[in-house]
Design goal:
- The structure is a homodimer of 258-residue chains.
- The first copy, chain A, is of the alpha+beta class.
- Chain A folds into 2 domains: 2-78, Orthogonal Bundle (Arc Repressor Mutant, subunit A), CATH 1.10.10; 87-254, GAF domain (Beta-Lactamase).
- Chain A contains 10 helices and 8 strands.
- Chain A is 47% helix and 19% strand.
- In chain A, helix 2 (35-42) packs across helix 3 (46-58).
- In chain A, the strands form 2 sheets. Chain A has a 6-stranded antiparallel beta sheet with strand order 5-4-3-8-7-6. Chain A has a two-stranded antiparallel ribbon with strand order 1-2.
- At the A-B interface, helix 1, helix 3, helix 4, helix 5 and strand 4 of A face helix 1, helix 3, helix 4, helix 5 and strand 4 of B.
- Chain A binds a DNA duplex (30 and 30 nucleotides) through helix 2 and helix 3.
Chain lengths: 258, 258
DNA sequence: GGTAGTATTACGTATTTATGTATTACGTAT
DNA sequence: ATACGTAATACATAAATACGTAATACTACC
């Protein structure tokens, strides 16, 4: 009789999947990391990660610095830019952003969503002496910002609630709303109104006035927002809100949403 | 006696490599394509490409439209933005670009190099009524533009010559220089001078005044340039050149090149 | 100076997978 | 109606590779 071989189905994971896990860990970290750290974070076999990191590095998908830390490589910038160039929403949004920044002389941001994070995708600085903390590429939990809430406002009640349940994070700032149910209700209300305003949450005395940019299917594919000192915003709120909303509508028109 | 089996060493290519080939074809095309077309272009087994395209699509590295054409997916934007966010040259360059655009009220571009192409990496439109043809992400052969030539100007004579030999393309515009030797000499001269000017090549009556941004190792890692109507440029050339060069120097200072 | 954790590399192998081959379907030119 | 190139999918298999294991070296803590 044959001795039954250990029937633990060794679960191999494809190189492509492992590669993406590595890229994801680095994007999450937002800084270079060692192959060892990456492997530990993923919970993947160390030897596997070492060899795939080596492979990706030789293909310029990753770079290695003098301390043997790896970071995303130039090839990813190439693909990212190619993607952007084709995406006409961003093209139109960027044009309108530049226009609005010059007109209002305030900082304008275009934000998109990536899973549970709001991503600053483009920015125009209208006011030289005013610097915001969030730069291009920065990622913020959806429950922290006006734009974040707008970006899930089109989802049906349950889906929206699940998003906040899954991805809400508590912020250093005590004002942040954290109750998922309340968040999803606010989110839907703001999306329907086509406007979300947030004061002084992500930063000291900074206001953000955001409007949704809707795609052809009615979903929120991006937001456009003014970021400016609280005092300025509150003294002239109607003016800024109407300008931002006008810009959002122009973009929607340009991409054929209406 | 055993019949010798056909000893053709079947040369398998890894899934990661095939994935990158697919992404490269799509970036080159600059538009969506079918799996069949991609396979033909690469010269890869059709079944392989179909299955890998399927795999990448399910992982959001690619998207598929209603005609079954595939295009780069949102995940690539994520990685591209993360890469950019970490790259302090671009951060500084972008800041200075915004500043200069507001000051000169002209269009400013930040360009980088990807192999034999010059890539428009960031842009600020200072003048609303003037629209350039080259948008963010657009790729132009290095021999067509002032910025392109600057971006290889730091290479040693032979390397520089090889770049032009390998990557020069003839343009629809008859003015384009195509002799590699002449190009490499011009390139080195311009890089040393810290200035390259090109009139009316890539577009009708449009001038480009570009300055190199040098990294800590002295190589040209990016360029900053003003793009404006020929008439404006020639009537005030000294002013524009000195402003662009000042900006380039400021960026180099900010990233610690000098 | 021994034990434990971190960091990296090397190697054999079970297991996945990239490929070749075949099949179906569609348009269109012969 | 037949032949041909394009387009897409299915399946078996030879061959690459993701994984387990082990070896080496370096810190740090007792």
């Amino acid at each position: 009789m044959m001795i039954e071989k250990n029937i633990k189905t060794r679960n191999r994971i494809s190189g492509i999947e492992r590669s993406l896990q590595i890229l994801d860990v680095l994007t999450d970290f937002g800084r270079p990391a060692s192959a060892y750290d990456i492997a530990k974070t993923i919970g993947a076999p160390i030897s596997t990660i070492y060899s795939i990191v080596e492979d990706l590095t030789s293909r310029e998908m990753l770079t290695r610095d003098s301390n043997n830390l790896v970071w995303l490589g130039p090839r990813l910038l190439r693909y990212g830019l190619a993607y952007e160039a084709q995406m006409d929403v961003l093209l139109e949004a960027r044009k309108e952003m530049d226009h609005l920044a010059a007109y209002l002389k305030e900082t304008i941001q275009i934000c998109t969503r990536d899973e549970g994070k709001m991503v600053v995708t483009a920015m125009a600085t209208g006011n030289e002496h005013f610097h915001v903390a969030s730069h291009i590429g920065s990622r913020t939990p959806i429950n922290w910002t006006a734009s974040g809430r707008l970006l899930v406002g089109h989802m049906d009640d349950n889906e929206c609630l699940e998003m906040f349940k899954k991805y809400s994070e508590t912020s250093p700032n005590t004002d942040t709303i954290i109750d998922p149910l309340q968040l999803s209700k606010t989110s839907k209300k703001e999306f329907t109104a086509g406007l979300a305003i947030q004061v002084s949450l992500s930063e000291f005395s900074v206001s953000c006035i955001a409007a949704p940019i809707r795609g052809r299917d009615g979903s929120c594919i991006a937001t456009i927002s003014v970021v400016l000192p609280e005092l300025k915003a509150s003294s002239n709120l109607d003016y800024f809100t109407s300008e931002v909303q006008k810009s959002a509508n122009k973009i929607e028109l340009a991409i054929g949403s209406y």
